[in-house]
Amino acid sequence: MGLSTVGAARVWRVGDREISLETPVIAGILNVTPDSFSDGGRFEQPVKAIARGRKIAEEGAVILDIGAESTRPGADPVPADEEWARLEPVLLGLRDLPIPISVDTHKLEVAERAVDAGAAAINDVTALRAEPALAGLAARTGVGLVLMHMRGTPRTMQLDTAYRDVTAEVRGTLDDARRAALDAGCEPGQIALDPGLGFGKSLVGNLELLARLDEIASLGAPVWVGPSRKSFLGTLLDLGPAERVTASVAACLAAARRGADVLRVHDVRDTRQALEVTRAIDARRAGDVRGERPLIRPRAAGDRG
Ligand code: HH2
Question: What is the pTM for the complete model shown?
Answer without folding.
Answer: 0.92
